[in-house]
Design a protein that fits this description.
232 residues; eight-stranded parallel β-barrel; alpha/beta; 11 helices
């Protein structure tokens, strides 16, 4: 399993997305399609980006009763994405149902990962607003273990938790980590952040990078810097 940089294409339209992707004349970055773009453009945006030769992480964070998630994942598996996700808070049964729904008749399926706690969530908010009394680190590790039990490939977590997830769930259990910023950049609205080089050191398998690349004066140069720092 090689390390890779996933570019978060958090745009509101297909045109803005293609304007961005057209800047890449040599590379075909692994891209993340999130709720904003998917809800604006629907499945057609996934098919077109796939046709252009990009790997796709479809980031819709499903969280519902097991049967609904199973049927939804079955639909998403037909889009030929490379990775998708759900909320670990939906319980082991929901995650097991997701694996069943995502698995195609030939036994193949996209990588499936679970969101533990969003990188915008602090321990204080988690305890005061969500009434989860355990520490954020214990919660993340527990959710990761639940995902492993359910047969998922890994979790989305902050790079700051990637090491402890690997320690608890094994090195083969994947960590996909948003909340990555350049050392000289702005942290934006995320609380738990780190740099590409530090994420590599900690053990992240994939880093998800948005504005430091998409809002850069030269996005291609920013992408290459990310790849150089993280993949080497």
């Amino acid at each position: 399993m090689g390390k890779d940089v996933i570019v978060a294409c958090d745009f509101s339209s297909a045109q803005a997305t293609f304007d961005f992707l057209d800047k890449f004349t040599e590379e075909k970055p692994f891209v993340k399609i999130g709720m904003e773009l998917y809800y604006a453009e629907g499945p057609s945006i996934v098919k077109e980006i796939k046709r252009r030769g990009h790997k796709i992480f479809l980031d819709l964070k499903l969280h519902d009763i097991p049967n609904t998630v199973k049927k939804s994942m079955s639909v998403l598996s037909k889009l030929d994405v490379d990775m998708t996700n759900l909320h670990a808070a939906g319980t082991i049964d929901m995650m097991k149902a997701a694996v069943e729904g995502l698995t195609r008749e030939d036994g193949t399926r996209p990588i499936l990962i679970a969101v533990t706690q969003l990188t915008s969530t602090s321990e204080e908010r988690m305890q005061n607003e969500l009434l989860i009394s355990a520490s954020i680190n214990d919660t993340i590790v527990k959710y990761a273990n639940n995902a492993k039990i359910a047969g998922l490939d890994g979790v989305v977590c902050s790079p700051l938790e990637a090491g402890m997830v690997k320690e608890s769930c094994g090195k083969a259990f994947m960590t996909v980590t948003p909340g990555v910023r350049f050392a000289d950049g702005d942290v934006g609205d995320q609380v738990r952040v780190t740099t590409p080089a530090k994420a590599k050191e900690i053990g992240s398998d994939y880093i998800v990078v948005g504005r430091p690349i998409t809002a850069a004066a030269d996005p291609v140069a920013a992408y290459r810097r990310c790849v150089a720092e993280f993949v080497g």
